[in-house]
Amino acid sequence: MTESNVLLELNNIKKYFPITAGIFRREVGAVRAVDDISLRVYRGETLGLVGESGCGKTTLGKCVVRLLEPNSGSMQYNFGGEMRDLLSLNAQESFAARRKIQMVFQDPYSSLNPMKTIYQSFDEPIRIHSDRNKEERRELIARLLEAVNLHPEYMYRYPHEFSGGQRQRICIARALCVDPELVVCDEPVSALDVSIQAQVLNQMKDLQEKLGLTYIFIAHDLSVVEYMSDRIAVMYLGQVLELAPARSLYDRHIHPYTQALLSAVPVPDIRAKRERIILEGDVPSPADPPQGCRFHTRCQYCHARCVEEMPKLEPLAADPEHFVACHLAEERFAAVGT
Amino acid sequence: MATEYILEINNLKTQFVVRRRRVVRAVDGVTFKVRRGKILGLVGESGCGKSVTAHSIMRLLPKTAVIPEGSILFHPEGGESVDMAKLNPTGRKIRSIRGNEISMIFQDPMASLNPVYNIGDQIIEVLREHSKITKKEALERAVRMLELLSIPKASERIKDYPHQFSGGMKQRVMIAMGLICRPQLLIADEPTTALDVTIQAQIIELIKEMQSEFGFSTIIITHNMGIVADMADDVAVMYMGKIVEFGTKEDVFLNPLHPYTQALLKSVPILGNAGEDKLIPIRGVTPDPSEMPPGCAFEPRCDFATEACKTCVPGRVGVTDSHIVRCVHCIGEKLDD
Which domains does chain A have, with CATH numbers? Predict the structure, then answer.
């Protein structure tokens, strides 16, 4: 993972949503949905973003595709070797950049226009972003549908004629119709039945291999994220608490939150005897996050320093690819062993 | 009459009459037994009929539903057995059982609490409906129940309204409502699906704790194989209105015999495998419940399907005393439907 392989670099991204009150809509506070996140996404990898509801994972995804403008921070994107900040591009450049980053949404039922045929839904972005003629566009749509194992003739059908799994495959194909480099997938399988989830997940893996795509894969289901991702970022209250390659996150999770999260996932194996760590209480409100470490209110290892000082996301001394935001990271790493 | 089983469902059929007199067989010959003091996990995908089964037991079905066949025998401790399927769904008898001896927790705690009453009033409503008790006593019992379910400052919070509680706390209130009358059977319909994983873990542990404390029997309905593996003693796997496999947890997880159960277990990622084993999806989609295939309902998606599967509906085969499978390829004692 070298510097030149970086596709996207997020630096100190913040996204606050104002809370207003009174008839003058005076600002009385802010929901800190994404609070100072810095991440790198490498070309060709899948970066998993995992966390509970309200942790800011979807907001971060939307910032990356720029459906939301971050309040501050920069997003450096690799344009053929040259890193440029997506947030300071001019209108023409941003139009071209939007093509490169696409998104797949959670709910395949509401993300396809019921009044348009699949052909119409696909045709519009292709027309806008390329100068293909009608015949070429039709050919491309046919190829895309074939790539997700759907019959090309289906392009003249309406969304209601498809099942949930088929619709999600259509949404994936639609994201690919402008030939993107990075696809942000926001909970792409959580609206689907278990037997259908595997179809969609495998399809996404195949497409990634074939087209050399980079994914940001957002989900709350840890087992799905682990199955899909090369690296996983664990989010909590708008921050990344731990970032590591999928395997080492499972084997040597350092952060107490990751530990609790992993132990909370029910595993369909009755032989697995696991120690379950039950977190007390609920996630605090992102409008009024705790001082110091965001997790200290629910952490069993909390001590004085955690209450006062916010830990930074830093690599472990022994493993530079494993980032943890915890004051106890090195001690805990030594205890877990290698 | 105390038998080993608290609930025996025999060949239960629940049908809905939809447009143009088409009949949807949502529950199509379900037979299973719930052991006293044990947890039964009922798993299946959406639309397989697991919730309709639960609503049939409680007789909370909409007016378009009919139960043309089958029996639901409830054997309460120290009481007479009742066939729930024969009761008048709005009659006095069912109302004395519902919420009292059998109670239910629903999937979405946000939608199952009334937003305009405080939670104390909602909890004691069940209690006062079923026993002669003063409001003060009822509230005291409600507070004790909430304390048991680890709601902090229960005596103050009992006056709060549902919107003042978080999702996990609301589900605790729902559990309190379900348990306040000390039911003998608790039906939990996807009790954690709307919750986050760490909250889900809290609720799972809580239901297990309450069960060992009060000793009631439980039917837990879920689509998550992991929750079943964690909680259940017995497992029933449901597909298109039928129980395709029934057995103890060990039977179903260590020796799954029905192709659907096997496929279901292979199609979910297991934490800790890090994508090493590629998932094997189940091909195709679930059939339309009003146009079911003539033979085995799983036949169009099954890897082991033969000609026999296309024509006849497989009967129940007892592979061992505890392990019952509906598949023509399984060898064992033929059982009645």
Answer: 3-112+182-193+210-336 (3.40.50.300)
